[in-house]
Amino acid sequence: MSNGNGVTATLSDAAETVKEKAMEFGGAVASSASATVAKAKKAAKKAEKTVKADIAKARKAVAKRTSKASKAVKKTVAKAKKKLAAASANAKKEAAALKRKATGAAKKATKKTPARKAAKKAVKKTTARKAAPKKAAVRKAAPKKAVAKKAVPKKAAKKAVRKAAPRKTVKKAAKKAARK
Questions:
Q1: Chain segment 102-121, per-residue pLDDT in tens
Q2: How far apart are CA 55 and CA 49, in angstroms?
Q3: Counts for the chain of helices (H) and strands (E), in that order
Q4: Closest CA to 173 of 110, 129, 117
């Protein structure tokens, strides 16, 4: 039995050694695995911080560009408004000046000059000469039988009443009066 005891003790020692080695190996694997996990966590946190920083930088850059662009747009709009206001004011001034000139010219034209007075008289005379006999013919009351024989047809009378003095005669009369 003494042989059996020695074998058991050897086997027990060997098993214990294997157990210890397995524990050491398992501990080493576990520690290296946890170290790797820790390293991965650190790398992930670092990457996350880097990404957050990059995003913050990008947002700042976008905000900066946006503010610059909005300022530029505001300046451009302000300049355009000023130019439009100035152009509007100038146009109003010009319109007022043109109105003044037009009213001045109209006043000068409405002043009665001797030539104009003479032209008006000539026009009145020619229209009075032509219109007077027509009015008398229209106003005359004649017996019904005589009207049928002697009176001018109604169409001709209406045409004669509608006609005014021709423009040529008015112009000629005005020129003659201006010469005098």
A1: 887 777 766 666 666 677 77
A2: 10
A3: 5, 0
A4: 117
